[in-house]
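Hello K.,

You asked for the raw outputs rather than the summary table, so here they are, unedited. I folded two proteins back to back in the same session to keep the settings identical. This is the first:
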Amino acid sequence: MLRTLNTLLAIRISITANLLIYYIQKLPLIGKLVRDSFYGNLDFKKIITVIALLFTQLWGVMLRFIYLGMLIYLPVIGLGEGLSEEDQLKQFVHIFTVISFVVAAVSSASVLEPKREKYVAVKLMRLSGARYMQASLGYRYVTFMVYLLPAMLVFGTLLGASIIEAVLLTILITLWRILVEYAHLKLFEKTGVVLIKHTALVWSVILLGYAAAYLPLLLGKVLSTDSFLLSLPASIVITAGGLFAAIRLARYSDYRAVVDAATKRDDPLLDLGRMMTEAQKKSVKSKDSDYTVNLNEQDKLKTKEGYGYLNALFFLRHRSLISSPINKRLAIIGAFGVVGVILMILFREQLEDQKWSLEKIFPFLILIMYFMSIGENICKAIFYNCDLSLMRYSFYRSAVYEHFLIRLRRVMSLNLGIAAALGVSLTAITAAAGEEWLSTELLMLWVCVISLSAFFSVHHLFMYYIFQPYSTELNMKNPLYFIVNMVVSFAGGISIILRVPAVSFTVIIFAVTLIYLAVALILVRKYGARTFRVK
């Protein structure tokens, strides 16, 4: 088994090392020093392998910090600011229990997960299916517990949990996940059903689970989930079940059928690149009905010329690609507004007791507008249906500043409509809560939402023109694109922690938007012709 584990780790580290070399080549300045011959340079590969090994371990720990911090801790301290430390801990345990124990029980099962690594190890390298699964599962759940423990200790103790409670939660979730693995395996053995491949069921559980996780926090209801989960009977049952499942998984004799079911060559999950490429291309293809232009639309086109005509024609002939994501976002915002108004009316007294105010929403606006803006969707559609062919010509690249401005105005107008819908929903919720309509906070909220819509319009187009992250297969190839996007998303998380007052927050957002716009205009005009190219 140790030999199999070494082989398994060698496969993973080799893949990670090759990816590191590939992405280092994409970095400015440093990338030019790393040649393709380095893939076969054994001395260099040994150094990269050590870096890759450290990176995978640190990344595993970091992911758990991101998971507990962004998904659980920040919402608890942000939305539950008026709660006592004990109640905040109860909310933390409740959200963690629903997401990690309930939702993950349906959506995650390594034993039946289609993976390229599994296909390579068992089908191509002819490793024993039983030894591979035993080594893979053992390594997964040992590292699962090791990676999760530091994050649980940090965030748990910040909310007042004892070290024993944090360790117990980590052990219980690890044993529970082992028990769930065995349950998935037995379900497949008895019925032939691979539960994680039933997409509709899995996503239904995810949506309902996340709603059940966060709804008590939004309503100010404190459930005693921790009392049940950390009770002696529940701990004994989960511990006994997890240990029993671990023994049965270690002694399971029919892994061959399980591996065969999870490594079908035609399964698209084994080729994530192909699957993602097909999905990406499908998402940016227009409908045949889009090419039907009526007389009024033709008259509007006659008033355009040059790149203005080109872009007007593009947006007209691909209107379904533009309207579909907008309509979905408007529907989400509308549903959010209706539900918010109903909750405000039903639970007004409880919210008044918690001193709810509109100012509590401000720190979340960055992340809300980040996901609501449609700039990235439009950039993908423009690249695949227009720029992929035209950016090969020097005259088109040299006019990059001109069509950047045209598209910026159009994207801003579309995002402004989404921002207005969000502003109306939040205004309605504020009115239902019984707060003053024409308040400074409400005015600042409208200014902030509109500024953020402009910010993300500039952001996505600027990233597209300067980094041009898409390849001909619509894959992301530029690591700097990921880094800058990660910085922006982290800024949203930091705003939740810092809790800047509404007026100061709005002034900062407005100023940053103006600065970003000025920087984007300067850099696109100066460097766009060189960076805006096919990759």
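The second followed immediately with the same parameters:
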Amino acid sequence: MHNIYFLIFRRMRRPLLALVLTYAVAVLGLSLIPGQDDAGNPWHMDLFHSFYFVSFMATTIGFGEIPYPFTDGQRLWVTFSLYATVIVWLYAIGTLLALFRDRSFQHALTEGRFARRVRQLREGFYLVCGYGETGSALVAALTERGHRVVAIDIDPDRVSLLQLESLRQFVPVLAGDAARPDCLMQAGLKHPLCKGVVALTNIDEVNLKVAITSKLLHPEIKVICRSDSLDVEANMKSFGTDYIINPFETFASHLAVALQAPGLFLLQSWLSGSPEYRLQEPVYPQSSGRWIVCGYGRFGKAICQRLKREGIEPVVVEAHPEITGMPEGGYVLGRGTEEKTLREAGIEGAVGLVAGTDNDANNLSIIMTAREIRPELFIVLRQNRMENQAVIDAVEADMVMHKSAIVANRIRVLLGTPLLYQFTSLALHQSDAWACELVSRISALVTSHSPDIWELRLEPDDALAVCRGLEQGRLIQLQHLSADPGDRRRPLECIPLLLKRDGESFMLPDPEIPVKRGDRLLYCGRAAARHRMGWCLQNIHALNYILTGESVSTGWVWRKLKRHGLLGRSAGESRSGE
């Protein structure tokens, strides 16, 4: 608001001075020019009546000459004043209209509205810096789950695009530089309800500045940053950044899991995918044999390091080693789009190919050329731009690395279901047979799309009925929470994945384990099971039926009818008596 007032007074200073001066001269002249009353006696208009006459004269309404008819001298002065005031008003109005069209003024108004909306937020929210491919996917995922989001992006076109999006929640957005602390402050960095800051710009240095500013101005806040550089990542860690996501390293670790335990990789893919995603088919990359990596940039380096840890010595194909750096153990000079280059790299005896350049057209050309020579290759494709999704799908690669999707999906899990992040981390220490068994259980619940993932805390806000039952000393087991409130003998289509209690985590907990207040639970299953579970958690009568099999009539009319024997046994009582 201070910027708005400053701009108004700075631009309107001359027009306002001109208005004041013109009116002052007109009023003073009218009061000095002699007139005549009805009797013909000399008369001077006082300053009040002069000001009054000049004021309504400027509106061109015309109340007539007051209090007596004017003399020719007064009428001449009024004519001069009339044109002078009209001209100065046109000057002032023109300047005011130009001010409203000024970009700096419009930006100041936008910033004022944005800051006011952020101050008026009454729910916890996340501050997302950067609304590119990654940011847009993350904002859509968070708002779909009911989370409040505030966004910043330096590109006005992206800001306009966000305002046109049909999101579930309204998202205040500011066109500004996230590297500036004042922009972060306007976006609610120090707001008491700000739950976290996510830096997703395509410039690592900007993400680093966001992390530093956030930790210095709001030390207890959760900060998640994207980083494509190991040096910047190390710098972020020194400032206490909570989570740093490197898409290249993340995908390389996924590939390593697929090489070691395909079932565990499939489990992670199913649980981490959004419910609208179709279930991914299992992949079986060869953990021995020749792998060819085309492109030795940041992605290629991460893949080569992971493959070497798995005992695989990859063959690197790089067109500009003087820029990317010389690969260890030699390389083949070329882009990989030429048959000669691939044959020189040993494509005839290869088991896997990584098309990892920063050009989608080259990556597609590499794959098509390689498949003509060796169709059974395991293909890993790097996707650089979202608009190429149709041709990427058409090539049917075994694994696709799209860094924006990887970062957005990882952050969505961290913010939306943090227990899932803990579960997948613990699952890495399990056997592949354990993962395959869990995949079979999940496939029995869902058929085509990823399962719905939700977590709950046994507190009055999420489970009022359960907390009251525990306070009354009732024994409530984990299996009771997943019983169908319509038929307690039928379990809901969901699986408890993790129970966290007093700092300890229990994977796939026993259904007969008693629950306690404060427990945190992670479930996967159908969305319908999640909604029906809410009855058991919040409705004391539904919980009582699940625990005892007795269905209590709570309405006054139903109780009267039942008391006089006019109502038969309820469905719950019939089932309990069978």
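The chain is about 50% helix and 15% strand.

Happy to rerun anything if the numbers look odd on your end.

Regards,
P.
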